Amino acid sequence: MRNLTILGATGTIGRNTLDVTMRHPDRFRVVALAGGSRWEPMLELCRVHRPRYAALVAPDAAALLRERVKVEGLDCQVLAGERALAELAALDEVDTVMAAIVGAAGLAPTLAAARAGKRVLLANKEALVMAGGLFMETVRRHGAELLPIDSEHNAVFQSLPAGYDGELRRAGVRRILLTASGGPFRTMPLERFAAVTPDEACAHPNWVMGRKISVDSATMMNKGLEVIEAHWLFGAPASHIEVVIHPQSVVHSLVEYEDGSVIAQLGNPDMRTPIAHALSYPERIASGVSPLDLAAAGGLTFEKPDTRRFPCLALAYDALDAGQAAMIALNAANECAVARFLAGGLRFDHIPILIEAVVARTESGPVQSLDEALRLDAAARREATQWLERRAA
Length: 393
Ligand code: NDP
Ligand code: MG
Fold this sequence. Notes:
By secondary structure, this protein is an alpha/beta fold. It contains 16 helices and eleven strands. The chain has helices at residues 12-22, 39-49, 59-71, 82-89, 107-115, 125-141, 151-159, 198-202, 211-219, 221-234, 272-280, 294-297, 311-322, 324-342, 351-360, 370-392, and strands at 2-7, 28-35, 53-56, 77-80, 96-99, 119-122, 145-148, 173-180, 241-245, 251-257, 262-266. β10 (251-257) and β11 form a beta hairpin. α2 (39-49) packs parallel to α3 (59-71) and α5 packs parallel to α6 (125-141). The longest helix is centred in the last third of the chain and has 23 residues, at 370-392. Residues 150-152, 226 line the site of magnesium ion.
């Protein structure tokens, strides 16, 4: 029996996780659910999944949730605030934590789960981008077990030898190949980028995802963040990580070995596959995903990414080269840019311009502590806000 805390339970990944756990009540018990500020969907999840604890970061929303939970006679303790999320990630009665909060807000509770030595199912890629070295060191020192949920990294994990120890050379690996769908604007004429709307950017051709990661997919910053994620997860230098566009999203990523063998993981584009894999690893369980019909899929095609069309991808490689401080700035500036774009206050094609400007003003070098990472994150957000204000003036 695995006992779970789900961080980001009300999101796309959180709900997909609950969909898988519900299929196996004999294997999984949901102990705690956590989210940001939306109490109504959290109340609904409490009714269905009966967790012992539920937490929301926003105090007012948590108070409303607490009241309703009481009125409905649910046996669930409601907590509030950021610290509560870290507490739920480290509960003694929990052995497995799904880290599926979007953005930098997920870093502290995800680190808390690692520090408590849990099995950490990592969807929150921004946590690794912001503090990869620190996070991987925490996992090692506290004997946590890290399993990637991001479909590409889960595919790479499955394509690497069992017990892979973070040394590409020792495993005979030549390259890691991350596939990318290219998002909704892979073939759109470049001159139309200026007028792209938030709804167009969020209409991904293959995957159903939250709005932030959907915009990241449209700019291909998502793939950039994933290159950095792969660097930390698999100990791979940037020169050994390549991105290839694969519009069908059937091949989820590949590992190329010295002898010329290329091993890939395939499947329908449905996050319940990597979620079920990580939940039950090393066993295999049903996920609810329909079988892959190769004949119906038809052609699988591959092409090189065009960094003129997708400058964010190049910005991420540059930040990886420049070090942890640049990666923090990249991530923070991207979060600010995407939020402003979604609110209707920034042009789509200005997202990479803002990010580049913020990263250019960042100090470089390694980052030693969570406090330092958070300080650099806040500084980059201030830079981004000032840039936006200058633009608006
Ligand atoms: P969603 O936007 O659907 O869900 C986000 C979740 O995070 C919600 O539960 C939300 O709570 C919570 N949240 C938002 N802001 C905060 C905050 N400040 N503090 C605490 N919780 C917060 O996102 P997704 O599920 O799509 O993505 C989650 C993560 O997984 C992201 O890092 C994404 O990159 C990654 N990922 C997602 C994939 C996908 O297919 N969706 C694929 C691979 C990775 P509330 O509802 O209260 O706002
Ligand atoms: Mg991915």
